[in-house]
């Protein structure tokens, strides 16, 4: 083979290799530019103080679902049983304005990106402990404002639809943004069995519905706060 022919073949081979190299470089550049999604921090609040509360069981199940099947979202439960009854007289004119339990609660709430409320229905409305916690969170400055939220209820009768309607109404003043769908009103005492004696959720269908609700909350939170799509 002549030297001239060899040179032409080498030239062709080199030219054909360039697009592949450029494509590889382009992929590397895109990989460098792509930023990992930030973790959406969800604070869960149970409106029932019972140790074997079914609503607390819903929160435990939601935490497990996130850990096992939803990337980019983490749920942490915050306790409200230590909060005193709402009373502005307990507020102080100092750097630490609120009683210690309230201050700790408000810090956790302030650090959240979204909320998951789980609560029964008492007398067609919210349980007092949940309303009390919300009232403390809304004291100036309101630490719930501008954030997203979802709610679930396990209760007798209607499954909690009236109490959820009341929380949506309260959310208007709080400037909380609730997802609209899916809704979850669990008629806890009707067959088939949905919870065990410890309040743990055992119904596979409800677990699937709960996952759908959490995915909806994640999607809505990212739409409302696009900065969470990637880390800073």
Automatic annotation (TrEMBL):
Region (Disordered): 1-33
Residues of the NADPH-dependent FMN reductase-like domain: 40-186
Top-rank taxon: Eukaryota
Top enzyme class: oxidoreductase
One GO term describing the cellular component: cytosol
Catalytic activity: a quinone + NADPH + H(+) = a quinol + NADP(+); a quinone + NADH + H(+) = a quinol + NAD(+)
GO molecular function ontology, one term from the record: NAD(P)H dehydrogenase (quinone) activity
EC number of the protein: 1.6.5.2
Bias (Basic and acidic residues) ranges: 1-11
Protein's name according to its UniProt entry: NAD(P)H dehydrogenase (quinone)
Species this chain originates from: Dioscorea cayennensis subsp. rotundata
Lineage, uppermost ranks: Eukaryota, Viridiplantae, Streptophyta, Embryophyta, Tracheophyta
């Amino acid at each position: 083979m002549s030297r001239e022919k060899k040179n032409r073949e080498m030239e062709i081979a080199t030219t054909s290799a360039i697009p592949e190299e450029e494509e590889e470089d382009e992929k590397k550049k895109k990989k460098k530019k792509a930023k990992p999604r930030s973790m959406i921090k969800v604070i869960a609040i149970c409106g029932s103080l019972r140790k074997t509360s079914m609503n607390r069981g819903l929160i435990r199940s939601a935490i497990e679902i996130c850990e096992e099947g939803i990337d980019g979202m983490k749920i942490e439960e915050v306790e409200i049983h230590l909060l005193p009854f709402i009373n502005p007289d307990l507020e102080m004119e100092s750097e630490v304005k609120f009683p210690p339990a309230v201050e700790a609660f408000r810090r956790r709430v302030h650090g959240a990106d979204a909320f998951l409320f789980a609560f029964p229905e008492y007398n067609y409305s919210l349980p007092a402990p949940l309303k009390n916690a919300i009232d403390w969170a809304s004291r100036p400055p309101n630490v719930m404002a501008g954030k997203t939220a979802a709610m679930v209820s396990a209760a007798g009768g209607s499954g909690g639809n009236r109490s959820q309607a009341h929380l949506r109404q309260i959310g208007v003043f709080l400037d909380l943004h609730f997802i609209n769908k899916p809704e979850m009103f669990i008629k806890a005492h009707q067959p088939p069995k949905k919870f065990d004696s410890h309040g743990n959720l055992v119904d596979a269908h409800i677990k699937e519905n709960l996952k759908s609700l959490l995915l909806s909350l994640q999607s809505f939170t990212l739409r409302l706060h696009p900065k969470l799509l990637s880390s800073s």
